Amino acid sequence: MVLHAIEVNGLRKSYGAHTVLDGIRLSVAKGTIYALLGPNGAGKTTLIHILSTLVHPDSGSARIAGYDILSDRNNVRQAISLTGQFAAVDEVLTGSENLMMMSRLSGLSAAQSRTRTKELLQQFELEEAAFKRVKTYSGGMRRRLDLAVSLVVSRPVLFLDEPTTGLDTASRRSLWEMIRQLKNEGMTIFLTTQYLEEADQLADEIAVLNGGRIAAAGTADELKARVGGEVIELRGLKDELIGSIPTDGSVRDVRQKLNELEASCPPDVRIVIRKPSMDDVFLALTGSSPALHKEVSLG
Ligand SMILES: Nc1ncnc2c1ncn2[C@@H]1O[C@H](COP(=O)(O)OP(=O)(O)OP(=O)(O)O)[C@@H](O)[C@H]1O
């Protein structure tokens, strides 16, 4: 029995002299959500393209639903759905027409296609917009339609490449809910994201991709534990974040850091002590933070 929906072993890919993936090894348990977290250009899309058989790796191997991505490409393609970063829907057609077209292309009869279209419009909250042209849709509606189109035929493994990039908070949350629902239906979901909160909220397991390698992997709590202890946050008069300093949380360490801060900080800086966030994990593992604030270095 195949326990892992996705198994990746030593995948490498370079473009010219640029090594994009430098020996990726990971596994994704069936029925879970796995988030690959990394900054712009880290190689997330490249990995998804390799796993969905669109790009050939230089070396290494991977299995999807038990099928080898190199020697068993057709079976891999039958086992996956893929939603990329750019909408794959026809803007001139309505949402309903897009779903009907994809259903017919996937081999469903006209009657089956109508039933499936209705189900998907309902599942992705697109019933009201069903007969409007896609070019009038909001970003969130397009993403939902895109996801619906890729799920016309239900497959066990779903690849989502940055599913919520560019969406507002409300649309992002609604899409998260739909992704959770797909997991509840038994799907295995591999998603890439630049948003720490997204990985934190959705994923059973998170891997941080940096410099072509998986810098760390684990549950959100395990990754936060790697940063350890607590974080001292420095805030200005309007409660704006000025910086943060990791501490092991002991009285001794906190006192020492506060003493150093007292000597170097303006008097109106306030402090808050809190548990590490995914931001701190990212910063600790990659040396760069996607958030606006910077780690303050003492001494
Ligand atoms: N076909 C290609 N030819 C040359 N270089 C490429 C090609 N595809 C990707 N790259 C390079 O590989 C690196 C990783 O790109 P990739 O799109 O996988 O990153 P990413 O993590 O998905 O980033 P983003 O969040 O910006 O999509 C980038 O430096 C990119 O320029």
TrEMBL record:
NCBIfam families documented for this protein: drrA
Membrane topology term: Peripheral membrane protein
InterPro entries linked to this entry: AAA+_ATPase (IPR003593), ABC_transporter-like_ATP-bd (IPR003439), ABC_transporter-like_CS (IPR017871), ABC_transporter_ATP-binding (IPR050763), DrrA (IPR005894), P-loop_NTPase (IPR027417)
The keyword Transport appears for this protein: yes
Molecular function per GO: ATP binding; ATP hydrolysis activity
Domain ABC transporter per the UniProt entry, residue ranges: 6-236
Localization per Swiss-Prot or TrEMBL: Cell membrane
Pfam families, sorted: ABC_tran
Protein name: ATP-binding cassette domain-containing protein
Keyword vocabulary terms for this entry: ATP-binding, Cell membrane, Membrane, Nucleotide-binding, Translocase, Transport
Family stated for the protein in its record: Belongs to the ABC transporter superfamily. Drug exporter-1 (DrugE1) (TC 3.A.1.105) family.
